[in-house]
Amino acid sequence: MTSTWTPSSWRNQTALHQPEWPDSGELDLAVKQLSQLPPLVFAGEARDLTDQLARVCRGEAFLLQAGDCAESFDTTADSIRDKLRVILQMAVVLTYSGGMPLVKVGRIAGQFAKPRSSATETQDGLELPSFLGQIVNDVGFSEQERRPDATRLLTAYHRAASTLNLLRAFTHGGFADLSQVSTWNREFVASSPTGERYAQMADEIDRALRFMAACGINSKTEPALHEVDFFTSHEALLLNYEEALTRQDSLTGDWYDCSAHMLWIGERTRQLDGAHIEFLRGVKNPLGCKIGPTATPEEVIGLCEALNPERIPGRLTLICRMGADRIATGLPPLLAAVRDSGHPVVWASDPMHGNTYTAENGRKTRSFDRIVAELTGFFDAHRQAGTWPGGMHVELTGDSVTECVGGGDGLDEAALEEAYETMCDPRLNGRQSVDLAFMVAELLQQD
Ligand code: PEP
Ligand code: CO
Fold this sequence. Notes:
It is a single chain. The protein has 447 residues and is of the alpha/beta class. The chain has a domain at 11-176 and 227-240 and 347-445: Aldolase class I (TIM Barrel), CATH 3.20.20. 41% of the residues lie in helices and 14% in strands. The chain has helices spanning 24-35, 43-57, 77-98, 143-146, 151-172, 178-191, 195-214, 239-244, 275-281, 297-307, 327-341, 368-385, 430-445, and strands spanning 62-67, 102-107, 120-123, 126-129, 231-235, 246-248, 255-257, 262-265, 287-291, 316-320, 346-349, 356-358, 364-366, 389-395. The strands form 4 sheets. Strands 1-2-5-8-9-10-11-14 form an 8-stranded parallel barrel, surrounded by 5 helices. A two-stranded antiparallel ribbon has the order 3-4. The relative contact order is 0.16. The structure holds phosphoenolpyruvate (PEP) and cobalt (II) ion (CO). Phosphoenolpyruvate binds at residues 69, 115, 235, 266-268, 290, 321, 353, 425. Residues 69, 115, 235, 266-268, 290, 321, 353, 425 line the site of phosphoenolpyruvate (PEP).
């Protein structure tokens, strides 16, 4: 690791999972144009999120990080609205049951780049570059669609800007009003086969709202009931893009990656001597780092030292994605090592990426039960270690897709053919997501 950090010092290290751009002139031009465009977020907002995550670190709040595996450039306003709606529904259930604030972070407004296990894909004897997210190429299988196209970096920026603009409007313009969100949850409970199990909780939330209203507390008197803080995040994979949006804050002189409030490092790019760690250690945004089943205690402590040497609470979130079968053995040694080192971290569970499998019809899927099993293992491990299970990180959409099996509606593998729409990993649909929130609410109540 180089000792002096600059926005471009990552270039001295090995950067894995970068596209092979066929035209370096095209890339240079796109990056130059990006670097002249306004930041998407303000440094003060990123600091705010660090403060909120510091509360999670202290066991005083819970983190919900959720959204698409890979966002599409063609996402409609309705789809953005419905995704936000599901996240807000989940947040209300978790807030009520945990009795503490929820920190809400979307995998949204910039989650466009994907690392892939193989650089190429072969179909009927034709080998082409893998789909790397619409910020790089397109999902269709033709030479032209799969060619990495640097002008897409600019399209990604503009799509992120318009998504963020809509999110800011929704979260501050009345759409997120608490009584409204509660009504959606009642509707879910009334129409879901497993709803009965949650009816009591939904009633209690309603009663609490009526009690507050009777006391004169409503969304007119109390802006907190009418607006929500909602933050953006994505995997900081394409370092050219991230560098171009990294700016020096005029108030503090610190550097921030202004492409999103929070950035995370993926499981495939968390090498201690790699370019991703080098880049992200120098920006002041709150960071996430995925932790898979092969991570050793030494590696995890190394990540804490590299990414948070000043031990700032809220700076670093470790997002475990072990798989339901491995969490009970894999997580406890890591929890103990980090606890004993005194490093302040937020521990979050990503119960999606360690539980992906191929269904008999060839569809990549995940089972709701395995997702719940990993979350249960996560809570158990924390209970035993005396540490705080600080949050969950899930891939979801508000659309009525059929990509994951199970959940209250009992989707089976045959149902995957009905509405399998994801460009990358299988997502929970709206109903499965709210279902999951009620289940995690029960786990939280046991704490
Ligand atoms: C993801 O979050 O979409 C992802 C690729 O995860 P991971 O890095 O944990 O495999
Ligand atoms: Co994914």
